[in-house]
C-alpha cells in the first residue's frame, strides 16, 4: 500500500467524530501482506493483522515508535513530520500499512517486542534487533496549536536521526503509533534509545569509540624527560652530520682566507703589454 502521512491525515476532517482513536503506520524494506485498508479499524483487528505480519519475521531490525496522545489530526499539518514522510517514500521501502484511525486501546509496543523476538526465533532468526523509541507526548487537550507543532517538529527530528541509521544499515521494519495515552503532555520515562546493530561494521566502530574514550581518560603523570624522548637516534645523527659539515665549511673558509696574492699582480704596467713597450 503506497500511502503517506498525508494520506493518513486525509480523513482528519472526520477525525473528531471518533474518540479514543489513533493512527497506525508500519513500513518495511520487505514486502508485507495485509487485508486492512486505510479506514477505521479496532485495535484487536489491527493487532491480529500485525501478528500475522511479524509471524514471518520479515526483517532483521525492528524499530517500535510510540508517541502518546497522537491522533490523525496532528498529522494533518503540512510540516508535521517531513522526516517520517521521507522515510515512507524511500525507494528501499517495499511494504507499507497505514491506518488513519484505530479504535480502542492503543497497541502496546513494549509487549510487542518479546512477541517479535519469539516469532523471529521460531522463524530461524534468533539474532534480530528490536528497539523501542518513546517520543515526547503530545498535549492531551487544551494545548496550543504552536505547542503541538513544536513538539511534532522536535519529535520528527529525533525520529529522523534514528531512521537515518536504520536506512544506512538496511533490512528494517518500523512501527509508529500513539502508544499509551497520558493526561498531560511531556516526556515519557523509560530507557533511552540506543541503536544496537549486530553487524561487524557497527561492532568495530563501537570498539574503536570505546578505545578512544578510554585513552582520553588515561592520565600520564611521569616527569617530562621520562614522558618524552628528546634526543632520538634520528636527531642525534642529524646533529653529528651538521657538526661534520660545519667543520668542513670552516676549513674551507680558513683556506680561502689564508691565500695571499700580491697587489702588484693586478697592476697593468707589470703585465706582458708593459714588457713589450719597454723593449
From TrEMBL:
Transmembrane feature ranges? 230-256
Q: Which GO terms describe its cellular component?
A: endoplasmic reticulum membrane
Record's keyword terms, sorted: Cell wall biogenesis/degradation, Endoplasmic reticulum, Membrane, Signal, Transmembrane, Transmembrane helix
Q: What are the BP-aspect GO terms? A: (1->6)-beta-D-glucan biosynthetic process; cell wall organization; fungal-type cell wall biogenesis
Does the UniProt entry include the keyword Lyase? no
Q: Report membrane topology.
A: Single-pass type I membrane protein
What sequence ranges are listed for the domain V-type proton ATPase subunit S1/VOA1 transmembrane? 229-268
- One Pfam family from the record: Ac45-VOA1_TM
Q: Which domain of life is it from?
A: Eukaryota
**Keyword check for Cell division:** no
Q: What is its main location?
A: endoplasmic reticulum
- Location relative to the cell: Endoplasmic reticulum membrane
Q: Which family does it belong to?
A: Belongs to the BIG1 family.
Give the matching PANTHER family.
PROTEIN BIG1
What is the recorded name of this protein? Protein BIG1
- State the organism named in the record: Neoarthrinium moseri
Amino acid at each position: 500500500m503506497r500511502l503517506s502521512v498525508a494520506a493518513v491525515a486525509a480523513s482528519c476532517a472526520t477525525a473528531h467524530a471518533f474518540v479514543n482513536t489513533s493512527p497506525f503506520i508500519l513500513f518495511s524494506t520487505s514486502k508485507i501482506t495485509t487485508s486492512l485498508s486505510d479506514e477505521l479499524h479496532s485495535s484487536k483487528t489491527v493487532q491480529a493483522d500485525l501478528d500475522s505480519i511479524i509471524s514471518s519475521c520479515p526483517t532483521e531490525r525492528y524499530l517500535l515508535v510510540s508517541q502518546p496522545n497522537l491522533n490523525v489530526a496532528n498529522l494533518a499539518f503540512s510540516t508535521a513530520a517531513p522526516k517520517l514522510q521521507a522515510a515512507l517514500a524511500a525507494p528501499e521501502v517495499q511494504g507499507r500499512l497505514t491506518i488513519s484511525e484505530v479504535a480502542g486501546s492503543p497497541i502496546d509496543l513494549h509487549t510487542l517486542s518479546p512477541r517479535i523476538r519469539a516469532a523471529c526465533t521460531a522463524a530461524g532468526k534468533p539474532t534480530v534487533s528490536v528497539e523501542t523509541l518513546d517520543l515526547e507526548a503530545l498535549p492531551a487537550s487544551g494545548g496550543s496549536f504552536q505547542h503541538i507543532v513544536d513538539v511534532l517538529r522536535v519529535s520528527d527530528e529525533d525520529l529522523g536521526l534514528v531512521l537515518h541509521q536504520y536506512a544506512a544499515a538496511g533490512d528494517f521494519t518500523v512501527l509508529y503509533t500513539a502508544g499509551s495515552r497520558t493526561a498531560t503532555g511531556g516526556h515519557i520515562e523509560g530507557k533511552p534509545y540506543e541503536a544496537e546493530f549486530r553487524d561487524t561494521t557497527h561492532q568495530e566502530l563501537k570498539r574503536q569509540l570505546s578505545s578512544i574514550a578510554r585513552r582520553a581518560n588515561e592520565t600520564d603523570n611521569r616527569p617530562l624527560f621520562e614522558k618524552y624522548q628528546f634526543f632520538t637516534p634520528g636527531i642525534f645523527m642529524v646533529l653529528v652530520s651538521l657538526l661534520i659539515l660545519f667543520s668542513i665549511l670552516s676549513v674551507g673558509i680558513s683556506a680561502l682566507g689564508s691565500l695571499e696574492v700580491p697587489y702588484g699582480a693586478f697592476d697593468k704596467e707589470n703585465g706582458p703589454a708593459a714588457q713589450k713597450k719597454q723593449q
